């Protein structure tokens, strides 16, 4: 799916919010970009597969940093920080 197609589904409300843990096998509606360093890990329209599971493991590790080291949290653009969820939809 192209980023444009993902954006069109998002503006039509054809997306759902899911927990980060449920991301494998789903298509991202948002760019997922941890900051710092500010490098996108997932682009809109990109599916996280079992082969790219290390991306999810990295995102989950960033979420756990807040619990273990207050003040050193990373902002994940495209993700709901309080619920560790972000907007995604199935392909």
Automatic annotation (TrEMBL):
Keywords on record: Lyase
GO cellular component: cytosol
GO biological process: L-arginine catabolic process
Domain spans labelled Orn/Lys/Arg decarboxylase C-terminal: 1-82
Top-level taxon in the UniProt lineage: Bacteria
Name of the top EC class for this enzyme: lyase
TM ranges: none
Enzyme Commission designation: 4.1.1.18
Signal peptide residues on this chain, from the entry's feature table: none
InterPro entries: Orn/lys/arg_de-COase, Prn/Lys/Arg_de-COase_C, Prn/Lys/Arg_de-COase_C_sf
Gene3D superfamilies in the cross-refs: Orn/Lys/Arg decarboxylase, C-terminal domain
One Gene Ontology MF term: arginine decarboxylase activity
Name of the featured protein: Lysine decarboxylase, constitutive
Classification of source organism: Bacteria, Pseudomonadati, Pseudomonadota, Gammaproteobacteria, Enterobacterales
Gene that this sequence comes from: ldcC_2
